[in-house]
Amino acid sequence: MERFCALALDFLRDRRGATAIEYAFIASLISIAAVAALLEIGPSLNAKFAGILPSLQ
């Protein structure tokens, strides 16, 4: 029983998981910003390619 309590206390004191969660949160914010930027740029880029297409044919 004492060993179980010691393992439980070690698990609760371990902070390595908190760092992984922080990195995952930062990565998710970056990916949300990238998707938002691509959705904003997409229509204007599509219009430019649509304008160029007739001259290529």
Plain-language structure description:
Pfam families: Flp_Fap. The chain crosses the membrane at residues 20-39. It is a single chain. With 57 residues, this protein is mainly alpha-helical. Helix content is 93%, strand content 0%. The chain has two helices and no strands.
What is the compact description of this entry?
This is Flp family type IVb pilin. The termini are far apart.
Main attributes of the structure:
single chain, 57 residues, mainly alpha, transmembrane, Flp family type IVb pilin, membrane
**Helical percent range?**
over 70%
Instruction: Specify the biggest β-sheet.
Output: none
Which residue ranges are poorly predicted, with pLDDT under 50 across at least 5 consecutive positions?
none
Distance between the termini: 79 Å
C-alpha Rg (nearest Å): 25 Å
**Overall spatial form:** rod-shaped
Number of helices: 2
How many strands?
0
Pfam families: Flp_Fap
Protein name: Flp family type IVb pilin
Organism: Bosea vestrisii
InterPro entries: Flp_Fap (IPR007047)
How would you summarize the topology of this molecule?
Elements lengths: L1 H12 L2 H41 L1
